[in-house]
TrEMBL record:
Keyword Cell cycle annotated: no
Name by which UniProt lists this protein: Methylenetetrahydrofolate reductase
Catalytic reactions on record: (6S)-5-methyl-5,6,7,8-tetrahydrofolate + NAD(+) = (6R)-5,10-methylene-5,6,7,8-tetrahydrofolate + NADH + H(+)
A Pfam family it matches: MTHFR
Names of required cofactors: FAD
Associated pathway: Amino-acid biosynthesis; L-methionine biosynthesis via de novo pathway; One-carbon metabolism; tetrahydrofolate interconversion
InterPro entries noted in UniProt: FAD-linked_oxidoreductase-like, Mehydrof_redctse-like
Organism: Steroidobacter gossypii
Keywords: FAD, Flavoprotein, Oxidoreductase
Similarity remark: Belongs to the methylenetetrahydrofolate reductase family.
Highest taxon of the lineage: Bacteria
Amino acid sequence: MKQRQVKPAMLIEPGVIAQLARDSSIEMNVQDVPDLAASRELLPAGKKVYVSHLPKQTWQQTLHACRKVREAGFDPVPHVPVRLLTSERELDDLLKGAVSESGVQEVLLIAGDYPKAAGPYPAVADVLKQGKLTQHGLGRISLAGHPEGHPKVSLTEIRRAEHEKAQLAQDAGLQTTFLTQFFFEAQPFLDWSNDLRANGVQARLVAGLAGPASIATLFRYAVRCGVGPSIRALGARPSSLVKLIGDHGPERVIRDLASTTHNESFNGIHLFCFGGFLRTCAWLKRVSDGNFKLDDQRGFVV
């Protein structure tokens, strides 16, 4: 399949970038709950806020965080690593509590990077085949997408699983979103999204991006999460500039993605915060309000 090339960044209107920021989702973890009150001054009501699952986190901590997200006026989407579920009953209890107690309308199902399943669900497809989400009143689902593959799973298996999950979710009548692992260059994501579209996948495709963070932090998470070849973009700046600025934001990749928004290859962006929830909220607020300037490095300055 012929690859779609990113258009020259100079053609991009700032309003397109601002709209991507306004329509974006964002991620937090349970330790960010105390910051939700302050985030109300930075994020619009109804913003989709994903709640990650940290090591040793309990389901009750997840439900508590989701309840606080809903009380703050946002739309909570909990991560559910299915390999941690010990039984069908635990899945039922979790989904029931999420909907009835925490106002959850969507979950992000992931396998989770665990060598063995604790119960009957080694793969997301095993949960989808049971029809539990619709039984508990959920109409939306998010699934993980891996444009650059996965360090522990073959690319062939990754692509097979993505298509299987998309079909199972569609058959269940679920509004489906593929939310990708974060990346630092647009082209692998665009190639992936175009291939899914060419193969009939109609799910929403959302680009997962790293929010503003130090270079060291981004490298640490990128290595841990198995980010693919686009990690090379982290080292693209001259060392003196990196030392001066100290941080790396998603400006360049967002500007490249903005050049494709009139196509139907993808549907939006998502920001991972890496412990900097309020910082990323403030960044999104400035970009959403148009408080940035395009630069001559294919990015923009906030």
